[in-house]
Amino acid sequence: MVEGHQVHRVAVLHAKKLLQKKFKATSPNGRFTEGAKLIDNQPLRRVEAVGKNLFYFFGKSHVVHVHFGMSGQFKLEDPPGSAPSKNTRLRLEHKDVVGHLSAMTLKHGGVDLFETKRATLGPDPLRADADPERLWTGLRKAKKSIGEVLMDQALVAGIGNIWRAEILFLARVHPGLAAMNITRPQFESLWSTSVTLLKKGFQTGSVVTVTEEEAAKGLRRYVYNQSHCGRCQAGVRSYPDKNKRTVYFCPVCQKMPGISTPASAPVRVFNSRCTKAPELNPDGLPPIAKMTKAAMAEELEARGADPRGSKAVLAQRLNQVRAVPLPKSGTADVIEGMTTPAEAAKEKLLAGEGRNVEHVAEFDEETRRLLENASASRKRKAGRRESKQGGEGVQQPAEPQPKRRRQSQRVVQRSKR
Q1: Segment 320-355, tens digit of pLDDT
Q2: Cβ atoms of 158 and 4 closer than 8 Å
Q3: Which of 28, 335, 377, 395 is most solvent-facing, going by the fewest CB within 10 Å?
Q4: Cα–Cα distance between 105 and 114 in angstroms, integer?
């Protein structure tokens, strides 16, 4: 499925190339005829991305909602453009550009269509208006695992299966951990990791979650679709979630907290004058001065910091870690370095990554030429290999041998007798 970072890339690309243009809008396969009529010859005023959803604002009141699903794509081509396919639900024609859209969801309506849909979605790490506290509140109420929460677009928008695996790994959280048991430090680590990774994916156009040094060795992701953990080399484990999507995790780096329950007995209530509710700061965290060394080490580890040292060292380190604000959501600080669709496609080709790993919805003329040249190059190489194998490995049929002379002479002599 097209994940959030790819949807935001399409929004930026189309804002640059399509805004303020009027199009001849048609529905080649007849599955968006009414919507095409409404936006025909209407200027495109605005493009918005929220999670995995795209919204195009035409004229004064028409909104088109797009969800690519598993295999949707929005191609931009030079005129006259290629012939529509059987999946082309919307074709936009302009003297400078032609667009072909295929998508799982394609709806039209007024501005309320945008507002209504956005209200059903959780905070999007790639939107500047994202409020992480909404996710924190949702976690406290969720009756599901953290792995399921990250895929629930109503709780957090834009994260798909690849990001889920890698975010949980880098935050060192087991996907099966109950969401309501996530601590505040774990939550902040999860949100920070989500923002950081999705921004990187938006900027580069690829899901590469490892460090530059690890990437230089050919590694792209730590646990998603990996047989061994990219960090500790332990065997990666997987299981299907309730929606039959594969969940990946490292049993060493993402340990599930063990809870042992001894034999129970009825509770004998006694009067207590010393039991107090734990004292917490306004941010929901315990005061460092009143924490044990073990509690400090646990929080530091949850935040990805070094949990080793004396209590005084841990207290100082925890103060510094807590003082670091959550990363700013949105794409404003990374949009300048955003790669083109062709550059992102070239990076995948050089890495040897197939286009079936991460579905890409963005497509332009430069990308088309790049992929066509790459395909032609592969065919030429395959042809040379076949030619070489035919010349070296295939045995030529032996020429028929003439009959032996002696044998023929014996036959003649016998006939004379």
Answers
A1: 777 676 788 889 989 989 999 999 999 999 998 887
A2: yes
A3: 395
A4: 14
Ramachandran class of 244: left when φ > 0, alpha when ψ lies in -120 to 50, beta otherwise: left
In sequence order, the β-bridge partners of residue 48 are 55
For residue 74, give the 3-state DSSP assignment: strand
pLDDT, tens digit (0-9, with 9 covering 90-100), for 152-178: 999 999 999 999 999 999 999 999 999
Mark out the alpha helices in 29-129 (DSSP H runs): 33-39, 111-119
Rounded CA-CA distance 111/387 in Å is: 61
Is residue 101 scored above 70 in pLDDT?
Answer: yes
- Assess contact for 171 and 304: CB atoms under 8 A: yes
CB atoms within 10 A of CB 229: 21
CA atoms within 13 A on the CB side of 299: 23
To which residue do tokens 């997987």 refer? 238
* Alpha-carbon gap, residue 270 to 54, rounded angstroms: 59
Q: How many CA atoms lie within 13 A of 314 on its CB side?
A: 21
- Cα distance between residue 105 and residue 137, in whole Å: 29
Confidence of residue 285 (pLDDT cuts 50, 70, 90): confident
Structure tokens at 343: 């550059």
Q: What is the C-alpha end-to-end distance of the chain, expressed in Å?
A: 89
Q: What percent of the chain has pLDDT over 90?
A: 65
- The length of the chain is 417
Task: Report the candidate in 137, 169, 166, 135 with the shortest Cα–Cα distance to residue 152.
Answer: 135
User: Cα(319)–Cα(287) distance, rounded to whole angstroms?
Assistant: 10
Nearest C-alpha neighbor of 292 from the set 267, 316, 314: 314
- pLDDT tens-digit readout, 240-250: 999 999 999 99
Strand 246-249 to 237-240 pairing:
antiparallel
Q: Which residues pair with 240 in a beta bridge?
A: 246
CB 16 within 8 A of CB 44: no
Q: Which residues contact 220 (CB under 8 A, 6 or more apart)?
A: 206, 207, 208, 209, 210, 351, 353
With tokens 């949105």, the residue in question is 330
